[in-house]
Amino acid sequence: MNATQLIAWFDAEARELPWRAPGTTPWGVLVSEVMLQQTPVHRVVDVWTEWLARWPRPSSLAAETPGTAVRAWGKLGYPRRALRLHAAATAIAVQHGDVVPDEVDALLALPGIGAYTARAVAAFGYGRRVPVVDTNVRRVLARAMHGLADSGPPSTSRDLSDVTRVLPQAQAARFSAALMELGAVVCTARRPRCGGCPVASDCAWLRAGRPTGNVAARPGQRYAGTDRQVRGLLLDVLRAAADPVPRARLDTVWPDAQQRERCLGSLLLDGLVQQTHDGRFALPGEAPAAITP
DNA sequence: GATCCGTGGTA
DNA sequence: TTACCAAGGAT
Fold first, then answer.
1. Is residue A287 part of a domain?
2. How do residues A196-218 score in pLDDT, each as one tens digit?
3. Number of domain units in chain A
4. Is A208 in the same domain as A245?
5. Sorting pLDDT into bands at 50, 70 and 90, what band is A289?
6. Residue A178: domain span
7. What are residue A245's phi and psi, to 5 degrees?
């Protein structure tokens, strides 16, 4: 893995994403990384821009209700991320003087910040030399280092060890960003564009003739009819509503009453939904005082 | 380690 | 059209 070559390619070819602009704060980086968890870049751009304009510091988000964060999250998906980001903002404001921590361990202690995001914030927000491992990095290294078509199951310790082996002393954070970019736009899962790859001459997989991986074994994530879909439908009603909605309104989104109740119950347990005193439902913190009949 | 947690673009 | 899957985290 030729770090100089890869970084030069990144300098010339990197996409201009708003959170990569000069002057982006560590808070901006943190927000972008949480939004990008399992979510394509093109869907994040507008929401991130809106969030950073509206809440330029952790304390400005912390001043809002959790429900406001969930509403502003829109349809990015996995709305628990919005709740946890709000909680992380609160923790940063209260416990860290409104300054995003620059150490991995402190970042890991924040809600919604795991092994990837903690290192991404330390690296991209603060320029720290820490290994950053996401799905792109794992795939690129599986091919370039190990000659395999795809990465095996994730193993935090082994993956970190692999990345540490190739991480340069200088410009480590930029190297990691370049590695991720390479996986996102060149060394993709479906149809890798090896013709345009800046490190093709170093690639074990290319050298081996691009062998195919194990075709079998993939559970496949279905969506239609799952609790995730039903939870999404329920929450969509609450996001769109200016006021708490009666249960009857929620009953219209899905025919299976038992599944509906289970999903509503899980949303309440997750703190994504709150019930008012008069029995209606709203996003958390947005339910006004009970209106007595 | 396996499972659950949204959403929508793409081949 | 169906199936895959995109900068993960928590349990």
1. no
2. 999 999 999 999 999 987 654 55
3. 2
4. no
5. very low
6. 1-214
7. -110, 145
Q: Is A100 in contact with A83 (CB distance < 8 Å)?
A: no
Residue range A224-245, pLDDT digits in tens: 899 999 999 999 999 999 999 9
From the candidates A13, A33, A181, A286, give the one annotated as an active-site residue.
Answer: A33
- Phi, psi at A212, each rounded to 5°: -80, 155
For residues A20 and A140, membership in a common domain is answered with yes
A227 touches strand C (CB under 7 A): no
Asked whether strand B has any atom less than 7 Å from the CB of A292, the reply is no
How many angstroms separate the CA of A115 from the C1' of B5? 18
Domain check: are A269 and A149 in the same one? no
What gap in Å lies between CA A103 and CA A130, rounded to an integer?
Answer: 10
Q: Is the CB of A190 under 7 A from strand B?
A: yes
Nucleotides of C under 7 A from a protein CB: 3-10
Tokens of A196: 């345009």
Q: Answer yes or no: is A288 within a domain.
A: no
